[in-house]
Write a structure and sequence with these properties.
The complex is a heterodimer of chains A (about 160) and B (about 280). Chain A has helices at about 10-30, 35-50, 55-80, 85-90, 100-105, 110-120, 125-135, 140-155, and strands at about 5, 10, 160. Chain A is mainly α and about 160 residues long. Chain A has two domains: about 1-95, RNA polymerase sigma factor, region 2, helix turn helix motif (Rna Polymerase Sigma Factor, Chain: A, Orthogonal Bundle), CATH 1.10.1740.10; about 95-155, Arc Repressor Mutant, subunit A (Orthogonal Bundle), CATH 1.10.10.10. Chain A is globular. The relative contact order of chain A is 0.11. With about 280 residues, chain B is α+β, with helices and mostly antiparallel strands. Chain B has one domain (about 70-275). Chain B has a seven-stranded antiparallel β-sheet with strand order 2-8-7-4-5-6-3. Chains A and B meet through helix 1, helix 2, helix 5, helix 6 and helix 8 of A and strand 1, helix 1 and helix 2 of B. Strand 3 (about 160) of chain A pairs parallel with strand 1 of chain B.
Chain lengths: ~160, ~280
């Protein structure tokens, strides 16, 4: 049986190339390593089982991010009441450096700001692309981006570079 | 002043185990047995079950309808049986000998000749009309068969259907003087034999084949009376006709006579022989 190709990439190549992107989206969204790993596996499991057709790698990357966000939403919806607070503390995201890390500050924001800021600054997506990925209007993305910056500045302090 | 450097987002390091697990997904998924949930096919199953139920109902309804047709067809078949009897009897009209089959024919004709003590003639009295019951002078209870206690069994057996009828026992002639001839001949035939207004006539011929009574075949003296078929057979096309000999204005002496029922067109419906003791 011929192996499925995703925008010219094999499954192994896709996993290797987009592990950090998908993993970061899941971690930023869930703020929990264990939960993020589940969603991470679900994203690639869905990619393998569905085998959708992609125009190019950008399409593939956008699809992975979109599916990652959806998986995280579904995970939060389905598992929210089942996770005891003390267990959540044990598996909570822990950064080794210090709490003043930008990533730590980003995780303090609300999820809707987290996604937009992450896609804008880390994945370097444009506003209209973020609007397409998150399926929201461009104006909404702009507002979320502006307010997210202000909130992040308050949390982290200092000025943007 | 501290600067917000978003490049620090790269600090999120994804563990290597995640990548390894993701790379092993194809093998895991292929080895994993595919689970088929029942709920996925519930709609199809419901559809198939509905179709099966509808088919079963249709088949049962069809069978029920067929049975009903068979039952309806069975009643005419009984009539047709008696019809054939009368027809064969008519065919035997010219025959001097009466075969055993004519015994059953005469049973349907129900010529009133049975005696209460003759058990074999009780069977032949199934289609006796109620008018005969009323005209029966004496009632003798039948001890062998309750169904045989019909008017024919009650009526004095002065007539005998055919001379060769085996049910006749030696006791019949002994009891013949005790009863009176009520002068009635009852026959059954298909209603299709009727014509015109549905009037039926009967003529009696003596041993020398001489017509008794009025020479006009359509006089009231030869008029027979139609009665309905047996009870519970309203849909039957079978007609019972009774001819009252006394009304014809003549009395019969001992001997063998021939009767002939005919319709308004003069077509013979049925005929036969009977004895007067």
């Amino acid at each position: 049986m011929a192996k499925a190709m995703y925008a010219g990439l094999s499954f192994e190549q896709v996993v290797t190339k987009y592990t950090k992107t998908v993993g970061s989206v899941c971690v930023v969204r869930l703020k929990n390593w264990t939960d993020a790993e589940d969603c991470f596996q679900n994203v690639f499991c869905r990619l393998y089982t569905k085998s959708p057709e992609f125009k190019d790698e950008e399409h593939l990357k956008a699809w992975l991010i979109r599916v990652s966000i959806n998986e995280c939403k579904n995970y939060l919806r389905d598992n929210k009441p089942l996770l005891p607070l003390k267990d959540a503390k044990d598996t909570a995201l822990d950064f080794p450096h210090d709490k003043c890390d930008v990533s730590w500050a980003l995780l303090q924001l609300e999820p809707k700001y987290r996604n937009v800021l992450y896609l804008y600054y880390k994945e370097r997506y444009k506003i209209d692309e973020i609007a397409l990925i998150l399926n929201k209007p461009v104006g909404t993305i702009k507002t979320l981006l502006k307010r997210g910056k202000e909130k992040l500045r308050k949390i982290y302090g200092g000025d943007e570079v | 002043m501290k600067k917000v450097n978003f490049n620090n987002l790269d600090n999120i390091q994804i563990p290597e185990s995640w990548t390894k697990s993701a790379l092993s997904l194809p093998e895991t998924l292929e080895n994993k047995k595919k689970v088929v949930y029942f709920s996925r096919f519930s709609k199809n199953l419901a559809l198939v079950a509905s179709l099966v139920l509808v088919c079963a109902l249709s088949v049962s309804l069809f069978i029920f309808t067929q049975k009903g047709d068979i039952l309806n067809a069975h009643k005419p078949s009984q009539n047709s049986e008696s019809t054939t009897v009368t027809q064969t009897e008519h065919a035997n009209q010219s025959e001097s000998e009466v075969s055993p089959a004519t015994e059953t024919q005469e049973k349907t004709q129900q010529t009133e000749s049975s005696t209460p003590t003759e058990p074999t003639q009780k069977v032949t009295e199934e289609t006796v009309t109620e008018t005969q019951k009323a005209t029966a002078p004496t009632l003798k209870p039948d001890t062998s068969d309750p169904d045989a206690s019909d008017p024919n069994g009650v009526v004095p057996p002065t007539q005998k259907p055919t001379p060769t009828e085996p049910p006749e026992t030696p006791e019949a002639p002994e009891e013949a003087p005790e009863v009176e001839f009520d002068g009635k001949i009852t026959v059954q035939f298909p209603s299709s034999h009727l014509s015109g207004n549905g009037y039926v006539y009967c003529q009696i011929y003596d041993g020398s084949d001489t017509l008794l009574g009025d020479s006009n075949p359509y006089s009231d003296t030869h008029r027979a009376f139609l009665t309905l078929p047996s009870a519970g057979n309203s849909s039957s096309s079978y007609v019972t006709a009774t001819y009252n000999i006394d009304k014809g204005g003549f009395s019969l002496s001992k001997g063998t006579y021939r009767y002939c029922f005919y319709n308004e067109n003069g077509e013979t419906i049925c005929s036969g022989l009977f004895d007067v003791y």
